[in-house]
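Researcher: Checking consistency across runs. Here is DNA ligase again:
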Amino acid sequence: MIPKNVRERYIKLKETINRHRTAYHVYDKEEISQQALDSLKHELSEIEERYPEIIAPDSPSQRVAGKPLPGFKKVRHKVPQWSFNDAFSPEEVREFDARVRRFLSASSRGGSSSGGKGGSASGGKPFGAVHPTYVCELKIDGLKIVLDYEKGVLKTAATRGDGIVGEDVTHNIKTIESVPLSLARPVDIVVEGEVWMSSNGLDALNKERAKAGDPLFANPRNAAAGSIRQLDPKVAAGRMLDVFIYDVARTSEKFPETQHEELEYMRTLGFKVNRHHALAKTIDEAIGFWEKWKAKGRHQEYWVDGVVLKVNEKKYEQALGYTGKAPRFAIAFKFPAEQVTTIVEDIVLQVGRTGVLTPVAHLKPVAVAGTIVSRATLHNEDEINRLDVRIGDTIILQKAGDVIPDIVSVVKELRPKSAKTYTWPSRVPECGGDGKIERVPGQAAWRCVNKDSFAVVRRRFHNFAGKHALDIEGLGKERVDMLLEKGLVQHYNELFTLTEGDLLTLEGFAEVSAKKLVAAIQKARHVELARLLVGLSIPQVGEETAILLAKKFHTIDVLAKASAEELENIEGIGPIVAREITAWFSLKRHRELVADLKKVLIVANPLSMSRRRLDIGPLAGKTFVLTGTLESMSRDEAKEKIRALGGDVSGSVSKKTDYVVFGSEAGSKLDKAQQLGVKILEEKDFLSMLK
């Protein structure tokens, strides 16, 4: 039995706390201090402690659940989740506006309508003169979230996932104060929004992680995503997360007639809506809004990476509907790639696994696109000359969605008198012996004359044991270096003769760790031909080329006897690659290396045409290129799935490419695909294709 006065007090406390939450997070009004609000929450929690049966699902105390979950449940979205097509220039946005007008004009004349969310389509009724307006909203760089309320109470919160099925993260979303647990009215509604972390929140979090010895988050987006995907809600609760709600996917009430009204409708229900939005009567006004925020978008407490333009009129939105991957009525107008300036402090040569020398600029550390950068490759001698970059120069650096930082140009008016022109050396000590180097015939690259210097050998061993080759678990670069420095191995085959006793002589090894590494090495004796070819460090033979060779040739012995002409006849292998392969196998020491490995390895070739037909499978004959980071799988896993279904994977985009699959932070490959008219697939479309 709960006394009447206690029950009444509890209800008033709950309503008061929730009202002040709404005032603070939705309307930016702090009507009472946070200390006073905390006092009210404390009183409410004392009542709940005495009378546990009184606890309501929308009680502020329910923001932090109890025990960590064993894993995430899957949630099927009530409304399919889409993502926007991107525009990168005013010209592309004007073309978007032109497409909208053409489509609406055709629809008004009686064309078909694909409909959309929030209600029924126009049914082909004429609109009269078509004059769409646009709502401009900031594109917050965070994690998309879908909230489902029943009778005004939060039921589930889910990630976007593949657009059809997401992960249930309700326990973590409840910890975010700006997410209402109950709404102003008992409405059934599904809304979409973005979870974000402020730059200050990221700094505070990274300080804590640094003290604990944990790896730091690169940017607020990664931190927000990582926090929401914690199984323990107490972790998310301590990470200063926030949310903006920007769209209604479904509602049991009358749907607003415009996007502008929809934003206000969500606010009246108690959702936090970003106040920086505007109604543009023309596309030029929308571009003006983008121009204004292009300069200041990155200086907000949250990250902004562009502006989303949405057709304001819902009748037009319904008529425009969706393509297979995105709404026709909206587009994400992205800001230009972030560029920064920094100083070249030195240029040094790095010896690669094939002995090729790569010049690397050592930079004054600088933050660009969310990461601290202190190195940038200069590729080769010709690139240094093209840029005319010197030690001491101020350079413009960018990460245009790509992982690798790129030097765009030199700010020559800032060149100091002390700037030094980089002189290509005639000898490099890391090349061993006399250190002589030579220019590779027909290429811009230089390489060590001595192909067996310690620097080259250790790089080869790193590659041989690496994840794209034999993938020996526990045999990282430091352990490889120890084995070489102590003379325990000199050749690849000697790895497979190592014993636990051998490893116990090395620093950092105990009986258990030695046993585990020996077991991992023995497991790696079973290797596919393509992986072995990658591990041999044959010049020009990377993962994709190795797979082409494995498909064509039954065994490594057959490949070793292949002529340059035979190799050139393989689609994807040119004359330079063919010459490098035949030259490598022509050397006696390389043939002996292969013979020694055959004594200790069991080489399989599931890709061989003599083993299986490669013209079958749903993706047979299709070539894919992957760019950016996928949410549901690693890039290597995606490649394996494509190949298992008969498809091919390439590292570069050309007219022969069938599909480019892109994830977050997609790079220049996506741009090239759009230029060439190659079909691009969002992750959800790619997953559907795999199914």
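Researcher: Does this match what you'd expect to see?
Model: One thing to look at in this run: The first strand starts at residue 74 and ends at 76.
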